[in-house]
Amino acid sequence: MASRLLVASLVISSFALAGTALGQGAAPAKADAAKPAAGAAAPTAPAAPAGPLKDPENKKGLSPYMEAIKKGEDAFVARDFPAAVTTFQDAIKIDSSKMLGFYRLGEAQLAAGKPEEAEAVWNVALNKDGPPDLKSKVLFVLADLRERQRKLDVSKEAWAKYAQFLKDQADAKGYAGTPEERQKVIDRRVKDEKDYAAVKERIQKRQAEREKEAEENAKKDKLNK
């Protein structure tokens, strides 16, 4: 009886050892299965998207609006002003609520030799959405353009608006000393033009007197012959 129990115990122990051996031998087989077969191509990482990332919110990538603005900037830098005008107009079609497109369109119009169009676009830009820094730029270029056009009274008012905006918007970047300087220049120009007008009037009057005197002398000479 004892021998039978011993044999049974040995048999059970043998099965247990065999199971353990099989279990230990199975693990390498799984590890080998995970390895690619010889000559097989290694798995590749997903390809990165071509071109800049796109994001309508312009946070994780370029929005269509900012993409159009960038294309316009590239054309402007290349001095292809007609293309810049067209591209900035495309940006405005995408989003007409933003100030940036109108500001840059005005810059392109001015560079293309169309100051009247630039002035009209910048006037529209003032009523669009944009940060204080950008609005101060629009006010600056408007005042500067009107002065260049010799609209002296209007430009003086425009410089005053620019100065007031910088006072009201403490965070806005700008040139606080420029308005006063330009207004002084405008005042001198106005004075010079008035003084010149008076001088011009005296010159014209004297010229008319000389011409009249010459005509009278010519008549006298004719009578004396």
TrEMBL record:
Keyword Metal-binding: no
Organism: Polyangium fumosum
Annotated signal sequence range: 1-18
Keywords in alphabetical order: Signal
Region ranges (Disordered): 33-61, 202-225
Designated name of the protein: Tetratricopeptide repeat protein
SUPFAM superfamilies found in the cross-reference section: TPR-like (SSF48452)
Compositional bias annotation for Low complexity: 33-52
